[in-house]
Structures are given as structure tokens and as C-alpha cells.
Design the sequence.
């Protein structure tokens, strides 16, 4: 995993979770933490940037940013700190509570009242490791344009760094997901699937195999 | 004590919006003197070595000189900062509520000194009584000769406007105040440019705290020597200390600058509640460092506190006795500041939110050694990374509480 | 001197418009597999000596864990807090979430405990899509035949029938949870054809199908009033009744401070996923960090029968370069869309849409016979010819495979102009715990769903059946567990099964030094303290 030779040689020194670490420059922060024996690194999951777990705060000279450790590379003099997992979901809703597609916007405002209070600090946009136009997505959602808003969040990995970044507690990642879910729930009605479901309702699938076992 | 409430909070100043009583006690005299010789105002303030009493301790005359040397574009602004919102600080609201005329007079003198033609009284709308008193007082001023007098001295009309602030804590930061006055969300600006060069709508702008401006009339009237003599130690003049927490008599005390912490707590504050031992004092509002019983002898002035690694700040002293959990206290303050972060700087918003979250976890018995280690790393990583000082304050508070009370954090771990 | 070409030389020789020779005649698939598939590497397989599968073949690294001592003793349970619930779901991936939701929908109080964070799983990384026979020319019967044939007829027909029959309803259920799928202009679900199948049957959400599925299910679980979630609480042992014959709970250990919790329950659903992080035969893996085969270890010690323990799926197109992404997948969807595989000589060597085991073995043959491409940092691979695909269908990569582009962008590679170096990577556990159509294992009270369960894919899985299986059988297990007998609960919760297993190990003369489950791979646990 971490034992491949370095082209060009030369190691870098950095600090991870308060521990001084020496690493190869092609290593990610996760690999550098492992190689350096940094204790208690538990926020690691997929190692390819889609599970959103390995959230780090990164100090690079006077600049502080956030990132995913599995996609960030070791550099001389930087300091990385694994952040605790996001807080529990604050906005409560169940899709099955929605019965009428006409009142989605009203319901959205009840569930996410903060979404219309964006103060345009851009903290969410700067925090997003996936380059999502979070602020625009929130504006679309607040305007009831749920399909377009949801599309803006296609690449969201739910690291929730934008939620931590938002001073109005909008929880943008969850707003984006709400928009995607509500769009599927009310508008995804594919004829090929519906037709097959209807056929199966008329004549459920059975096979020799299933008959034997039941 | 004869030196208590000798000046700003002297009973003759505490007349609310009653203009007649204020004038009987000499109100308005300083403005006449200042209008007659505007150049003398800055000189007197410089001689008096008045410092910024909103928390910075920065020499007032320096800011004034910077604004005075700028040409109007086309206006020049003076902003009286009354956004007071920090936990444990409650002095400006008292000055505004009980001595509004003194504050307005001070603001006009400052405007004359730097050549500002637009005066903005910027007040936290949550301080409803202060806002009402100031509004009533200002209405009375419009029926006096004072504004005309000042305008004549300046050579152009002076407008005085009352602008309720956003109520956000961060709105007290001076560049954030400018943004709000321009009609925008109070985000702190990057500096430079400083407000003296580029303030409200790009005009040169002086912004001073309420208490700072309230001191100007007395300096003009009685002179710099008198002002310097008000102090007992280093520093000059008097200071309004907001004393709160586990003391018998909490409240605002105007005392000579440099009064010792021990005198403030035990002589004026009546000592600790139920006679419990003193544990610590959150100074200057809690975005600063902690003092402990070993510091009871310290003079409460800017320089003496700095030598102890602390800061006078707004002069707030939150006293806690043995029996108070430091983790819970620090967690509460951290939550306040995390909630107040404006969101512009990732270091500040995400940093303080993480601090607050981990402190809550430790305080509620769910914290681990890893959480404590993360907090220690944050204390090291965050200072100096924000546009304003909010993030520094939180890191300082946390760091200071670690230095004095690490054991309590350890004991609270799972 | 390595045989084959260096990466630079191969890149220099590469032309996206080069004329391709016709595909050479293919050798017999069984011969190809037996010579080149990693399952058949010398010394990779051993025979189990204790437990329900004694005498069966098993990959060596797995056998070491199945025949290991437990990590806890009875004395460790003194004073440990006990939590009661109706159904305990172990695992927070797609199968675990589907099981938890189904159980909660059927009235059970559910506790879902997961090793990492809810949603950290192989599900979230799945790119290609999910199989469901919904197109006019397709049927559940064809889906079943494809599944059984690709699995070399080792799968259980009853389980396969249950899975393929669930297909359309699973998609319907996912849409009702709020999951989006790509559509055609007329609004139909867009389908792609997977390797080894007779009809286009893969429905998908761009190449983010797993991510879309996982974030929707995670939100649904987090929002559900009847489900409690414990993150970072891996299971380190199951609990049995006084006779060691029924599963009545589990022991969880906090990842943060290793403190233990006991969960007492009517039913336990194992949804712990696979074991890629054991790096069988030294292969890299596409799996997430927690895939260490814990569920198999716990089930086996409890007495559950397992199957196909010597059969693993190596995905043909794992990345070779850059090193930090070594073993991570390039979706099969890209071959389904028409991308070809080329060796160092720039020639095709296999029908790219053959079943995964065949394609894998063919790639390994090319490399072993000197037609591989070697980067500086180690490893070897063949080209996945993405530029040619882009030339024939301009804009396709950006439209349908945004994840591939996003990930390679971080590494400074543009697959639209540069082919991707790929090599097989350990991807999937074909077998697992033996289950019935309700997801019940051979131990009462213990269910299994998802990759930890076996019997469906036989000895090779086709693309898109994993996502179908986790939802279909996750829901089946959840429902069965929720509706299982409302007895008065266990008289005692014990480690009787651990004692039994320990006795068997001792009698067989096996060492008791090694402990399992592993929870995290050794390189990730380095420096860990408490």
C-alpha cells in the first residue's frame, strides 16, 4: 500500500493530529498518517473520495482550509487535523409524510427554514472538496427549483463540511439531498419499469428453483 | 469609596434624556470649547493618552490623526460603536441609557477633531432601553444650538444619525459595522485598507467605542492633566469595569484605571458569594485569557494585564468561585463565539464549531483523549488565520483554560 | 529486466486511431481460469479443520481468521452496559440500511451498529449500476439464467430466483426512498448491458450509482424514528443462548476508546460486507477500509455454515497508477459503453464483455506472458482504451462517467486523451454465509445479507447483481427478522459458542495465539492507542 518507491526521492515533514510525520510527497494524508504511526485515526473509509469521512482541517502557512485526507497529498510544512464526524441530522422529515406534490415548497420551508437565510459568506463553496456550487444550489432550492438544485449536488459525498461551514445552519448537503430525493419521489415515473411492475402484479415471477425451496 | 463613579457615571451625568439637568451640570460646555478651537481636541486627547476602551487599548489619537489627515471623499464619517454584545460586558448600554447626552457630545467633539461631517450612532437593537434613551436624547439635540455650533466650526453641516445594528456579535467588529451601515451583512472586511482610508462608502471613517467617546467631553473640559490624574497606576483616566459572576454585588463600576483585581472583587464587589474561594476570572469578556487567585494583585490596566499574558479587553471581569466547572463554562463561551462566527473564514467557522462541539462532548461525559488532543491541535493551528480576531479569542480562551485547568478536562473524559 | 513495455514507451507508441487486428482465437475458458485466475494460484487455498465447514476448501488468509481465537473473554463482559432492541443490524452499508429500514417498516425497534460511519461501505463506491429486468426484450428468467451461468452454476437457484424476481420492485422501492436513476429522452430508465449478460439490464445514476444509493439510504435511516444508529461501533463477538445454539445479541466495541457494549436482541442481521482488506494473495483491493471479513468470522464461530470460501472476484479494471489509487476501480460500465482492453503491443486480447473472471484471467495472462505495461513506481497492467471510446462517442465520458474524470483529475490524468492502466483487483467475496430466501443463516436468530451472505453468485458475480442483492436480500432479512417469533427472549446471554469453538481449536491442535475479527487492516491500525 504505502511501500512503493518514490520517483525523484526526497521526503517531506508535516504534522498530522499534532504528531510530526515524515512522508513521501506522493502519499495522501491518510497514508502519511498510517506510515507515521499517528494514533486514533478512525475517520477513514473508502480511500477514494466518495464516502466523505476523512475530513481534515489543513493549515498551509497562514491559510486554513478543509479537505478530504484521502485526496490531499503530503507537503512540506503543512499541518493536518482529522475533524470529528459531522453532527447528527437536525432536520426531520420522512418522504412518506409527503402526499401532495403541490405543497413541496411549503413543506420545504417548514423543514429547512434556514435555507432562505443565506448570507452569501461563500463558506460552503470554499469548504466543498467536490467543487459543488453549494450557494447556487441553495438559492435554487429556496426558490423551489428542486430538480435543478438537486442536480447541482450530484457529486456530493455528504462529508457535510458545508454544514459545519454554514453560519446560518442551513445544512446545505442535506438540502441538496432533499431536493434530489423529492425529485425522484414525485417525478421519476419510468414507463419501462412501471410496465414491468404491472406485468409482475398480474403474474408474479416464479421459477422451478423457488418452487422447490418453498 | 470616593473614587467610585467619579466621572462618566457621576450622578450629575446620569440624567437620561433630560437635557436641562445635563446642561445644569455643565453639559455642552466642552462642545463650546471644542468648537472654538477644534485643533485643541486632538492635542488634548493625545496628551491624555486615552486608549480605545472597546477592547483594543489602541491609542485613540493615532486613529484620529490618520482620519484627520485624509481628505473627505466627499464625506467623512464618525461611527460611535454601541454594538456591545460580548458575554459579561454591559457598560456601554449603561452609558447610553443613563448618559446619552454625554455620548452624543463626545461623538460630536470627535467629529470636529477629525473633520467628520457625518456622525453615525451605531447601537445594538437588543439594548432596547439604551436605544430608546439615545433616540429621545438625539431628538432633544435637534432643538438645541449645538449642531449648528459644531457645523459652523467644521465649515459644513453635520448630520447625526442613529443606526440600529444587526444585533450580530460580529457586527461590533469595526469593518463589519461599516458594511452594515452601508446596508450589507456585517462581514468583517480584510485589512488593509483600514477604515481611516476606506470606511463607509469608501469615505475616511473613524470608529470608536461608546465609552471611549464618552470620555472626550471631560478631557476637553478639564484637560489632559486632570484626566491622567484619574488613574491610580499605569494608564490614564478611569475605566468602567463590568463585574459579574459569583460576586455579592455584580454591576458596572467606574474606577481609576489600574484598580487592582482584588479591590474590584472584594472592596467593590463585596467578595464572593457564600464566601467560597475564588477560582478564576475571565477577563475582558471571555474571548481572552484567564486570571487566577495568584493575580489578585494585578492592576487592571492595559499594560499590566498584558505583562501577565492577559488582556483588559472591554474591562469585563467574570468571576467564578470554586465549585464552578471550568469545562462547562468554557464550553458555554465557545458555543457563543462559534455561533457568532460570520462564516467568511473557514478557519474561524469550522474551527470554532469544532471546538464548541468537542467541548460539549467532553462536558457531557462523552469526550475521549483523542478529542482533547484535537482541541490542543486547534489551539495551535487557528490563531492568526481569520480576518478578524474572533478565532484568536476562542483559541486564547481555550489555551488559557488548558494552561490553568488541564486536570479538569482530563477528569471529564470518558 | 522486466518483460513488456515501460509506461513511457507504451504511451509513446499509443495511438487512439490505430488500426486494430481482429480478436485472436480464445482458448477454452476453463483452461484460462485454471492457469491464470488468482483463486487458482498455488498455495492460495487450504482446507478448514474445525467448524461447520471442516474439510472444505478455503483461501488461506481467510482460514487463518475463521480458525482463530475470539478477541474477548467472559471476564471482559463484567459491568458492560446492556442495550435491548428488537433487531440488531451489524453493518451500515447498503444491505444494512435496507435491512434496518425494512425491519423498522414492519414495526421493529432497530439498532444499527456500524464499524465506521453510517454509509462507509463498498456500496458507496459502486459505480456501474444495478440489475433489474425491465426492458421489453428481457425477463426475470433471462436474468436468472445469466446469473447462474456466470456463476458457473454454483449458485442456489432458489436464491437467484428470489433476487431476480425482486429486481423491478427493488428499483421501485429505491425510487420511493428518493433515489434518482438516469432516464432516456422518453422517460424510460436508461439501461446498459453488463459483461456476461444477454440483455441490457443495468440501470444507473451516471457512474455514481452507489453514491446516490448510499446517501439516500443513509438519510432515510438517519431520519427514521424507529432506527437508532451507533457509528464507530464494530461488533467483536456475537452472543448466544445458554446452549450456544441461538444468536441473541452481540458485543460491540467503540472504535474511539475500545469500551464495550452488549446488545441483547431477538434477531441479529449481519451486513458486514466483504474482506478485500485482507489482500488475498497480495492483491490490491477496491474495497473500503473496514472490509476485513468480520462477519464471516463471527458467523463461523457461532456455528453458521459458509460456502464458496475459495472463490473471490477480482475486478478486471483496477487502477495501477497513481499508487494511492492502486486497486481502485474503473467501472465495468465503461466497457459496457464500448471501451476496449489493449496489451502493450496495442492489440485486443479478450472479448471485453465476457464475465469478470474470464477478463481478469486474460489480463493476468497478457502481463505474465510479457505483454504488460510497467509504470516506474511498480505494478503492471494493460490499457483501458478510453481515448478511442471518446473519439467514437465524443462527450460520452463527461456525460456518463463524471466520477472517473473527477478522480483522475486529482491525479493529473485525462482519460479522454490518455488510456488508463488497469490490472485486476480484489473486489468481491462470491461466497459467504449460507442463507435461505429470508436471509436466515443456519443458526437461529442470525441473518445475513449482502456480501457477507453467499449462495447467489456462485463462483463469479456479474456487474450490477451486488447492488440488487444487497437491497433485495437486505429487505428480506429485515422483514423476516422483524416478524420472527416474539418469544420471551433469552434466559441468558452467553459466550457458550466461543467456548465451544475454543475447545474445537484446542482439540485440533491449532494455535490459540491469533485472534479475530481483525476490525481494521494492520497498516491502518498502526500507532493506535487507547
Sequence:
Amino acid at each position: 500500500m504505502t511501500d512503493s518507491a518514490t520517483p525523484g526521492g526526497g521526503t517531506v515533514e508535516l504534522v498530522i493530529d499534532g504528531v510530526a510525520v515524515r512522508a513521501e510527497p506522493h502519499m495522501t494524508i491518510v497514508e502519511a498518517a498510517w506510515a507515521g504511526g499517528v494514533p486514533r485515526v478512525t475517520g477513514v473509509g473508502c480511500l477514494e473520495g466518495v464516502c466523505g469521512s476523512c475530513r481534515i482541517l489543513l493549515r498551509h502557512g497562514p491559510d486554513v482550509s478543509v479537505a478530504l485526507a484521502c485526496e490531499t497529498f503530503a507537503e512540506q510544512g503543512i499541518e493536518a487535523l482529522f475533524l470529528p464526524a459531522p453532527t447528527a441530522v437536525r432536520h426531520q422529515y420522512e418522504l412518506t409524510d409527503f402526499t401532495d406534490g403541490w405543497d413541496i415548497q411549503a413543506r420545504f420551508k417548514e423543514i429547512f427554514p434556514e435555507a432562505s437565510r443565506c448570507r452569501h459568506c461563500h463558506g460552503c463553496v470554499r469548504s466543498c472538496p467536490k467543487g459543488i456550487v453549494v450557494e447556487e444550489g441553495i438559492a435554487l432550492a429556496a426558490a423551489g427549483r428542486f430538480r435543478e438544485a438537486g442536480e447541482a449536488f450530484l457529486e456530493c459525498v455528504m462529508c457535510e463540511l458545508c454544514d459545519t461551514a454554514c453560519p446560518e445552519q442551513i445544512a446545505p448537503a442535506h438540502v441538496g439531498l432533499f431536493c434530489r430525493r423529492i425529485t425522484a419521489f414525485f417525478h421519476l415515473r419510468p414507463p419501462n419499469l412501471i410496465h414491468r411492475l404491472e406485468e409482475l402484479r398480474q403474474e408474479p415471477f416464479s421459477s422451478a428453483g423457488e418452487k422447490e425451496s418453498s | 469609596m470616593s473614587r467610585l463613579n467619579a466621572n462618566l457615571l457621576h450622578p450629575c451625568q446620569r440624567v437620561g434624556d433630560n437635557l436641562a439637568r445635563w446642561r445644569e451640570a455643565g453639559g455642552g460646555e466642552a462642545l463650546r470649547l471644542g468648537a472654538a478651537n477644534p485643533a485643541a481636541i486632538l492635542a488634548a486627547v493625545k496628551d491624555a493618552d486615552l486608549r480605545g476602551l472597546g477592547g483594543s487599548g489602541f491609542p485613540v489619537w493615532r486613529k484620529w490623526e490618520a482620519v484627520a489627515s485624509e481628505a473627505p471623499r466627499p464625506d467623512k464619517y464618525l461611527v460611535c460603536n454601541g454594538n456591545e454584545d460580548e458575554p459579561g460586558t454591559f457598560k456601554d448600554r449603561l452609558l447610553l441609557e443613563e448618559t446619552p447626552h454625554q455620548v452624543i457630545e463626545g461623538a460630536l467633539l470627535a467629529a470636529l477633531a477629525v473633520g467628520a461631517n457625518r456622525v453615525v450612532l451605531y447601537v445594538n437593537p437588543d439594548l432596547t432601553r439604551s436605544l430608546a434613551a439615545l433616540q429621545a436624547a438625539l431628538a432633544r439635540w435637534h432643538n438645541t444650538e449645538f449642531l449648528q455650533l459644531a457645523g459652523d466650526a467644521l465649515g459644513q453641516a453635520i448630520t447625526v444619525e442613529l443606526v440600529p445594528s444587526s444585533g450580530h456579535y460580529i457586527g461590533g467588529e469595526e469593518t463589519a459595522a461599516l458594511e452594515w451601515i452601508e446596508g450589507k451583512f456585517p462581514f468583517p472586511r480584510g485589512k488593509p485598507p483600514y477604515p481611516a482610508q476606506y470606511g463607509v462608502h469608501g469615505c475616511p471613517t473613524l470608529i470608536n467605542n461608546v465609552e471611549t467617546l464618552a470620555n472626550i467631553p471631560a478631557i476637553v473640559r478639564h484637560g489632559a492633566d486632570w484626566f491622567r490624574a484619574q488613574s491610580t497606576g499605569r494608564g490614564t483616566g478611569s475605566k468602567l469595569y463590568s463585574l459579574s459572576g459569583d460576586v455579592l454585588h455584580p454591576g458596572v463600576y467606574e474606577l481609576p484605571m489600574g484598580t487592582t483585581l482584588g479591590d474590584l472583587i472584594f472592596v467593590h464587589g463585596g467578595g464572593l458569594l457564600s464566601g467560597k474561594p475564588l477560582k478564576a476570572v475571565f477577563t475582558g469578556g471571555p474571548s481572552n485569557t484567564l486570571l487566577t487567585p495568584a493575580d489578585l494583585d494585578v492592576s487592571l490596566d492595559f499594560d499590566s494585564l498584558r505583562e501577565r499574558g492577559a488582556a483588559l479587553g472591554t474591562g469585563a471581569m467574570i468571576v467564578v468561585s470554586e465549585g464552578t466547572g471550568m469545562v462547562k463554562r468554557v464550553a458555554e463561551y465557545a458555543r457563543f463565539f462559534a455561533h457568532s462566527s460570520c462564516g467568511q473564514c473557514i478557519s474561524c467557522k469550522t474551527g470554532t464549531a469544532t471546538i464548541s462541539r468537542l467541548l460539549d462532548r467532553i462536558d457531557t461525559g462523552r469526550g475521549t483523549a483523542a478529542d482533547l488532543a484535537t482541541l490542543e491541535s486547534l489551539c495551535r493551528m487557528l490563531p492568526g488565520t481569520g480576518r478578524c480576531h474572533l478565532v484568536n479569542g476562542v483559541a486564547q480562551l481555550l489555551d488559557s483554560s488548558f494552561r490553568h485547568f488541564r486536570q479538569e478536562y482530563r477528569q471529564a473524559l470518558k | 529486466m522486466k518483460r513488456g513495455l515501460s509506461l513511457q514507451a507504451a504511451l509513446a507508441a499509443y495511438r487512439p486511431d490505430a488500426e486494430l487486428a481482429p480478436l485472436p482465437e480464445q482458448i477454452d475458458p476453463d483452461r484460462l481460469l485454471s492457469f491464470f485466475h488468482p483463486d487458482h494460484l498455488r498455495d492460495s487455498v487450504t482446507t478448514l479443520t474445525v467448524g461447520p465447514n471442516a474439510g472444505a476448501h478455503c483461501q488461506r488468509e481467510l482460514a487463518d481468521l475463521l480458525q482463530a481465537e475470539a478477541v474477548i473473554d467472559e471476564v471482559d463482559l463484567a459491568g458492560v452496559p446492556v442495550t435491548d432492541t428488537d433487531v440488531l443490524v451489524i453493518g451500515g452499508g447498503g444491505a444494512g440500511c435496507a435491512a434496518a429500514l425494512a425491519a423498522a417498516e414492519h414495526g421493529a425497534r432497530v439498532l444499527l451498529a456500524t464499524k465506521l460511519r453510517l454509509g462507509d461501505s463498498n456500496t458507496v463506491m459502486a459505480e456501474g449500476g444495478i440489475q433489474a429486468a425491465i426492458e421489453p426484450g428481457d425477463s426475470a428468467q433471462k436474468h436468472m439464467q445469466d446469473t447462474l451461468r456466470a456463476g458457473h452454476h454454483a449458485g442456489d437457484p432458489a436464491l437467484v430466483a428470489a433476487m431476480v424476481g425482486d429486481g423491478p420492485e427493488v428499483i421501485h422501492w429505491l425510487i420511493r426512498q428518493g433515489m434518482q436513476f438516469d432516464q432516456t429522452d422518453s422517460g424510460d430508465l436508461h439501461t446498459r448491458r453488463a459483461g456476461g449478460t444477454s440483455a441490457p439490464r443495468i440501470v444507473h445514476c451516471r457512474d455514481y450509482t452507489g453514491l446516490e444509493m448510499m446517501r439516500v439510504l443513509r438519510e432515510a435511516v438517519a431520519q427514521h424514528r424507529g432506527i437508532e444508529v451507533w457509528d464507530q461501533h464494530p461488533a467483536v463477538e456475537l452472543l448466544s443462548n445458554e446452549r450456544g445454539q441461538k444468536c441473541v445479541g452481540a458485543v460491540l466495541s467503540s472504535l474511539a476508546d475500545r469500551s464495550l457494549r452488549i446488545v441483547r436482541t431477538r434477531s441479529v442481521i449481519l451486513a458486514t460486507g466483504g474482506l478485500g482488506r485482507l489482500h488475498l494473495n497480495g492483491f490490491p483491493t477496491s474495497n473500503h477500509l473496514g472490509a476485513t471479513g468480520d462477519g464471516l468470522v463471527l458467523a463461523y464461530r457461532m456455528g453458521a455454515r459458509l460456502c464458496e470460501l475459495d472463490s473471490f472476484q477480482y475486478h478486471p479494471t483496477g487502477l495501477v497508477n497513481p499508487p494511492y489509487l492502486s486497486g481502485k476501480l474503473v467501472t465495468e460500465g465503461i466497457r459496457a459503453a464500448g471501451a476496449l482492453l489493449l496489451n502493450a503491443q496495442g492489440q485486443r486480447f479478450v472479448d471485453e464483455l465476457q464475465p469478470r473472471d474470464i477478463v481478469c484471467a486474460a489480463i493476468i495472462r497478457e502481463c505474465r506472458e510479457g505483454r504488460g505495461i510497467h509504470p516506474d513506481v511498480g505494478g503492471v497492467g494493460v490499457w483501458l482504451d478510453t481515448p478511442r471510446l471518446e473519439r467514437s462517442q465524443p462527450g460520452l465520458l463527461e456525460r456518463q462517467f463524471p466520477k472517473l474524470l473527477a478522480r483522475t483529475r486529482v491525479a493529473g490524468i485525462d482519460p479522454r486523451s490518455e488510456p488508463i492502466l488497469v490490472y485486476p483487483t480484489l473486489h468481491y467475496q462470491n461466497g459467504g454465509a449460507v442463507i435461505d430466501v429470508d436471509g436466515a443463516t443456519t443458526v437461529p436468530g442470525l441473518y445475513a445479507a449482502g456480501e457477507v451472505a453467499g449462495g447467489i453468485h456462485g463462483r463469479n458475480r456479474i456487474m450490477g447483481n451486488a447492488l440488487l442483492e444487497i437491497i433485495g436480500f437486505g429487505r428480506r432479512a429485515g422483514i423476516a427478522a422483524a416478524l420472527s417469533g416474539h418469544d420471551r427472549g433469552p434466559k441468558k446471554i452467553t459466550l457458550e459458542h466461543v467456548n465451544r469453538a475454543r475447545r474445537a481449536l484446542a482439540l485440533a491442535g491449532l494455535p490459540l495465539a491469533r485472534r479475530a475479527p481483525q476490525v481494521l487492516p494492520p497498516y491502518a491500525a498502526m500507532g493506535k492507542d487507547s
Summary: The first helix of chain B runs from residue 19 to 24. Chain B has three domains: 19-228, 232-321, 326-412. Chain B has a mean pLDDT of 96. Chain B touches chain C through four residues (CB under 8 Å).
